[in-house]
Amino acid sequence: MRRPERFRPALSRRARLGAATVAALVTGTAVFGIGQATAEHSVPRTDKEIPNLTQVQDKIKAYYGDTVTADGEHYASPKSNYARQVRGIEARARAYLTKALAKQAKGDGRAKPAIVLDMDDTTLLTYNYELQVGFHYTPESQDKYLETTDMDPVFGMNRLVKWAHDKGAEVFFITGRKESQRDWSVRNLKNVGYDVTLDRKHVYLKNKENPPPYLPCGAGCTTIEYKSGTRKHIESLGYNIVANFGDQYSDLSGGAGDRTFKLPNPMYYLP
Fold first, then answer.
1. DSSP codes, 92-113
2. What is the DSSP string of 114-137?
3. Which of 80, 97, 110, 226 is most buried, taking the most CB atoms under 10 A from its CB?
4. Per-residue pLDDT for 25 more than 90?
């Protein structure tokens, strides 16, 4: 819920579904082929360059294996193409981490290995929320949802995180969710199996009112500045980030991390 990390105001910091898919078609990029909506400043020249929004939503639902419960709640299916794609990424991550953590253990011991993860659509799946609000994020609807509802884990990510932690990796979360959503976010992570340390030293949320001194951009940080700056802060504490996970390229850019793993997300784009 990719928030302000994930969640941003509708079209300023978070390009919603229609704008993202339009831009992708204008630039000749297949939205569903790359697993990530893209946003450009190009303006469609004719209506033929604009996809039918209803058909786009139907494709997204099919990709996630949309499942509707008796009370009308929508959930992604563990048998969906989305879940299948995520499992492939997790398998590659596990193979890499097996070698990276073993290598780190044989090193000089000055830096402790760590992994960093985004929250919305990297560790927690926002699909049910997106369907509830008709793919139309607002800060008010996000607050209401997070306060009362736990999101499901992204398929298999809770198990991967626990496995990496058991293998010696310290686990950190960096999300663009606002600081006022901390208690709800930590509750959700705990309730869906992220059995790791979830204190303020391990879970970073965006605090515009009181930005930390290690971010020189302060309250005006872009997503890349905020996330890369926070990763650099973590490394300054004596950690080596061996892997960084995110569903947006802005989660992964800016350095501070040995390797990145991109999770799929065709629903929204965060620059």
1. HHHHHHHHHHHHHHTS-SSSEE
2. EEEE-SBTTTB--HHHHHHTTT--
3. 226
4. no
The DSSP letter of residue 47 is: G
| Inter-residue contact 197 to 185 (CB < 8 Å) | no
Closest among 269, 265, 16 to 137, alpha carbons compared:
16
Residue with tokens 């061996």: 242
| Single-letter code of the amino acid located at 62 | A
Task: Give helix 17-26 / helix 53-64 axis angle, nearest 10°.
Answer: 100
pTM of the model: 0.85
CA distance 262 to 271: 15
- Classify residue 109 as exposed, middle or buried by CB count within 10 Å of its CB (0-12, 13-18, 19+): exposed
Q: What are the C-alpha distances in Å from 205 to residues 64, 73, 109, 235, 264?
A: 27, 28, 29, 17, 22
Calpha distance 33→35 (Å, rounded):
6
Strands 203-206 and 239-246: unpaired
For residue 83, the number of C-alpha atoms closer than 13 Å in the C-beta half-sphere is 16
Nearest to 77 by CA among 89, 68, 64, 94: 64
**What is the rounded distance in angstroms from the CA atom of residue 169 to the CA atom of residue 167?**
6
pLDDT tens digits, 204-254: 999 999 999 999 999 999 999 999 999 999 999 999 999 999 999 999 999
Residue-wise pLDDT tens digits, 163-204: 999 999 999 999 999 999 999 999 999 999 999 999 999 999
- Interaxial angle between packed helices 182-191 and 139-148, expressed in degrees from 0 to 180 and rounded to the nearest 10: 50
Query: Can you tell me the distance from the alpha carbon of 202 to that of 178, in angstroms, rounded to the nearest whole number?
Result: 15
The Cα–Cα gap between 150 and 270 comes to: 22
